[in-house]
Amino acid sequence: MYSMGSQRETDAMAWHTRFVLLLALAGILLAAPDPTHGARIKDIASISGVRGNQLVGYGLVGGLSGTGDKQGTEFTIQSLTNMLLKMGINVDPQQVKVKNVAAVMVTAELPAFAQPGTRLDVLVSSIGDAKSLQGGTLLLTPMQGVDGETYCLAQGPVSLGGFSAGGGGDKQTKNHLTVGTIPSGGVVERAVEVPLQLRDRIHFILNQPDFTTADVVSKAMNETVGRDVAFCQDSRTVLVDVPENYRNHVVDYIARLETINVPVDAPARVVVNERTGTVVMGENVRISTVAVSHGGLSVMITTEPIVSQPNPFGRGRTVETKDKEVSVKEEPAHLMVLPAGVSLGEVVKALNAVGVTPRDLIAILQAIKAAGALSAELVIM
Questions:
Q1: Whether residue 183 is found in the same domain as residue 77
Q2: Distance between CA 64 and CA 133 in Å, rounded?
Q3: Residue 58 and residue 115 in one domain
Q4: Cα separations (Å) of 214 from 116, 206, 207?
Q5: Which are the contacts of 367, defined by CB distance < 8 A and separation ≥ 6?
Q6: Does the predicted model carry a pTM greater than 0.85?
């Protein structure tokens, strides 16, 4: 017997739980402090040129317990024989077994202002057909930037944070076994110069482009410095001139500017994830006068087996048939009128009164947007 109605009831309970969590989140947002208190400039913007740089290198992990690359992995064999040749050991590639060695790519991020001797965490990822890097050690690997120059040297034991064990056809695995880390396994050999002193202008780049926020940031900087030193180039970039008395103290100047609190403005946006039923709405979302009608339709299909047997001495045979019954139940529709200019809390409260689930809420928001009554950008993930 199969019941589609029971499945719909289970799904409805799951969506109801998520909807309750959504309402709780909305309550927290509504109870939060007034956003006009703002955020620090250092939290909403970055300085052009002050950033990390990606490093990458190719290396070998040795000391594996038979979980390395297979014999047919030619680049691992070639890399191993080349490394031995540089050490003065000439071997025949045909005689090399690589089951205890794995070819890997080593990646890391070189932070801004990193100096020679700085330690970095590196990530080791297998590129062959190794089964596990557990217990392996990364051999000395140079790491280059996009310019081809070597900026870091990496070496050390690989930490997986997991394991793999089993026997007799049973196996237990925890975490991913072909990717690991080496904490502080990289040593910076060359610094990337980021000259700040003697600069006459600094570029502040907003994380989220917005004309209103950029204008507020520039005005707050001018008010703090006491003169017109900042102006907006566009919705993302704020240009700030460095006064003469700060030319040799640019770090102090930046530290003074980045701690300024400014109100952050954001466009009205509704983000919808149809796969998980998640709906997130910003505080500036407004809805024009609109009527929302909501109703539910339940379809239940039941199947009951029926056995038909012949007479005791008849020549017939026992057969099984199925008796199917289909029932349809439609919940009465509810009509809810949302007046113009309602806020996030009022929208959630009204839709909750209608009794919608998160999936229903997604459909309603899409319909309201199509009707032109939703004054916000609708983002479907």
A1: yes
A2: 7
A3: yes
A4: 37, 7, 11
A5: 292
A6: no
Residues 182, 201, single domain; the answer is no
Question: CA dist 108 to 18, 139, 154, 209, 344, Å?
Answer: 38, 16, 9, 29, 42
Residue 289 lies in a domain: yes
Q: Give per-residue pLDDT as tens, 306-338.
A: 777 777 766 667 777 766 665 555 555 555 565
275 and 252 assigned to the same domain: no
**Structural domains in the chain (count):** 3
Model pLDDT for residues 65-100, shown as the tens digit of each residue: 888 888 778 888 888 888 888 888 888 888 777 889
Q: Which amino acid is at 283?
A: E
Look at residues 180, 174, 359, 336 and name the one whose alpha carbon lies nearest to residue 273. 359
